[in-house]
Amino acid sequence: MKILNIGFENIVSLDRVISILNPEAAPVKRIIKNNKNSGNLLDASCGRKTQSVIIMDSGHVILSALKPETLENRVAKEDNSVGEENF
User: Fold this and answer.
1) Taking the complete model, does pTM exceed 0.85, yes or no?
2) Per-residue pLDDT tens for 14-23?
């Protein structure tokens, strides 16, 4: 199982991540608002400004204080390290 550190010692299963989005777009803001009302919103930003929104296959939406580019680099690093272990 691959994991992704989303900041402040919070991790998610990389296999269950559908998308990592920028929170500034209007559709993403609507997703956050709708999921806050339905109880599917998890705030892992620890009181800091939300820099990215992670959409999970379970329908949960996770807020992170790390930028999408940082999370993308961590995903790429995780993919490379898993590939090296197979050799």
Assistant:
1) yes
2) 999 999 999 9
